[in-house]
UniProtKB/TrEMBL annotation:
Any GO CC annotation of this UniProt entry: outer membrane-bounded periplasmic space
Gene Ontology molecular functions: thiamine binding; thiamine pyrophosphate binding
Major site of localization recorded for this protein: periplasm
Source superkingdom: Bacteria
This protein's name: ABC transporter substrate-binding protein
UniProt keyword annotation of Signal present: yes
Any one Pfam family match given in the protein's UniProt record, by short name: SBP_bac_8
GO BP of this protein: thiamine transport
The UniProt record lists the keyword Transport: yes
InterPro entries: SBP (IPR006059)
N-terminal signal peptide: 1-23
Keywords per UniProt: Periplasm, Signal, Transport
Species, as recorded: Streptomyces colonosanans
Amino acid sequence: MFGAGVVIAMGAGLVACSSGSGAGSASASVTFIGGGGQLQEAQTKAYFSPFEKAKSGIKVVQDTGSTNPAKLVAAIQAGNVGWDLADVNADFGTGDQQKLLQPFDCAVVECPSGESETYRLPLHAYASVLAYNPSKVSGEPSNWADFFDVKKFPGKRALLKEAGPSGIFEAALLADGVPADTLYPLDVDRALKKLGTIKNSIVWATSPTQTADLVAGGVAVMGNVFSGQAYAQVKNGGDIKVAWDGMGLGVDYLVIPKGAPHVANANKLAAYMTDAATNADLAKIYPVGPGNPKARVDKTTATFDFLPTPDKSSHQYTLNGAWYASNYSTLTTKFQRWLQQ
């Protein structure tokens, strides 16, 4: 599934997928940590394998788990960082968290306009959407109010068990009548109260990939999933459809953890992944929009119908990463307390 010449972290060791003479020396490598699943497989095809060919001698080593910010923070604070470049959600790397990061070299990467120093590079855009299994529901759910209507649409709901910007709190508030343009600051208590109305019908997922798996496999009749995961299911024959109304638009970013062993190589890989000429290559095989505003996606590409374009929804919002970063501790405490009730 992964490209030739790539080394993948699996369990406690590293397994080389290359059929060549080896992974090379540590100084000639760069370790990337991503969210895993089919997104990271697509990143391998779009970025890592071509990068290795373009930057002869630099091998890409991979790990997963970057969607859990606690994992990154713990390693950085312990001074035990094994990663050079991380793909993170919008709720990580702003404000005080910048002290946990190494700034990018703007002489190597294309920093955002007007910035002489940056700690985050926009990588790709995605959407949090309502996905459902058409063979398991009678009718077509079209919005978050339908998601919370277990009488009209009986069955389990799949949600990601994380207090991060996955869209579950926003979905609850939209279903409870909050306008999309006034969601933030989130009324967490109100969102949890609304989620409580379907708590017995929730199947919790531990990853975005599993959330989509639960819906496509019929374990849940619908779920809050990322559009890219829905596309991956459809491509592989999964029984899943998307309702775009009330979608949440988000952005993933690249960051360099402080203490990264190969900062120079991290900048080189980041430059390749975010360059206007190559950034949209991922969108050709996986439905996320490019993070570089100069990158363009051809409308004839197979993924275009699943790309998070504004015309797909009249009631959309932007996932507010800064709010999540500022309120992460409080949100996590309330969410965990609610789960245990």
